[in-house]
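Try this one yourself first.
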């Protein structure tokens, strides 16, 4: 693997990569999920920020997510070059030098953490700094290449944004923030393992010890089902806290029923069945998982909007 990294570092790249290449380094798709869940954490908090402060918080959390993406692409350039779905990323494709990605990631990390601290509070800034460190160092540099539990433990990096949003508003971390964290944390393994079931060769070629590579697809199918079963009560529990309500509970019941049914279908399938239909079920469950968080966090924001509307109505009636 070190040989592959040496090839990346010594590759000849264009002197002037396009602006879009630097945008890709920030992993905009991942950033959009971070922004969305962080915004949800900010909006469902029991108090509110001034709109300008809230906008600043979201921007700096987004910059922190982008910094993590750039640092991850810098470190993972060698394995990205081997995997089909990542081979066209800016560094392995030879459009951006590794040092440029590293510099961009470090610069954005510093700006994001310092400015979030100035715009909100030190707890939110500290959580953002830890998230960047966890994703870039703990997950990317250590877990991803050393253990099949990489996604399980590493999932914490993607679970912090709603907690950061909550902390930016309240200056603290309550049970509601922890449940939003747990929702993403428990969702991450079945989401990525569903992908790994039909992308096993990519991870195998890159020598990434994904569960499908180290233990096989049969074990992975069982893990998808087990983690989905464990996810359901976490998702439902949030509905019985101050951020939940009937809209969230209805959405959670429907989405978790669908996700659980999909995980059950994955577990029941043999490898011969999966290969015969091109892993259709696994791809369907993966697509469903992409909507899972969107529906849950959208429902939480709807609940927050309903509470705010009721509060204004009561104030108007009292006046």
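Now uncover the answer:
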């Amino acid at each position: 693997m070190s040989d592959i990294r040496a090839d990346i570092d010594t590759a000849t790249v264009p002197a002037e990569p396009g602006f879009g290449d630097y945008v890709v380094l920030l992993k905009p798709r991942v950033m959009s999920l971070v922004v969305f869940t962080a915004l949800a954490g900010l909006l469902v908090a029991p108090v509110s920020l001034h709109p300008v402060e809230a906008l600043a918080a979201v921007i700096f959390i987004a910059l922190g997510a982008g910094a993590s993406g750039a640092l991850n692409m810098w470190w993972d350039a060698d394995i990205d070059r081997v995997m089909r779905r990542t081979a066209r990323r800016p560094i392995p494709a030879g459009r951006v030098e590794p040092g440029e990605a590293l510099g961009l990631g470090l610069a954005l990390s510093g700006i994001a953490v310092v400015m979030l601290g100035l715009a909100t509070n030190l707890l939110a800034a500290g959580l953002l700094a830890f998230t960047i460190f966890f994703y870039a160092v703990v997950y990317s540099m250590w877990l991803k290449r050393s253990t099949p539990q990489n996604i399980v433990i590493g999932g914490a990096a993607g679970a912090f944004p709603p907690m950061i949003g909550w902390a930016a508003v309240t200056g603290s971390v309550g049970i509601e923030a922890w449940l939003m964290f747990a929702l993403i944390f428990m969702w991450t393994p079945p989401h990525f393992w569903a992908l790994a079931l039909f992308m096993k060769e990519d991870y195998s070629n890159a020598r990434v010890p994904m569960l499908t590579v180290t233990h096989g697809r049969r074990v992975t199918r069982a893990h998808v089902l087990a983690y989905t079963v464990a996810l359901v009560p976490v998702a439902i529990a949030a509905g019985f806290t101050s951020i939940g309500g009937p809209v969230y509970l209805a959405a959670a019941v429907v989405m978790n029923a669908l996700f659980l049914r999909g995980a059950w279908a994955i577990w029941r399938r043999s490898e011969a069945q999966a290969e015969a239909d091109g892993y259709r079920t696994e791809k369907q469950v993966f697509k469903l998982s992409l909507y899972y968080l969107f529906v849950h966090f959208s429902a939480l924001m709807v609940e927050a909007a309903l509470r705010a509307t009721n509060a204004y109505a009561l104030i108007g009636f009292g006046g």
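Discussion: Residues 221 and 269 are 9 Å apart (CA to CA). Residues 4-13 have pLDDT under 50 and may be disordered.
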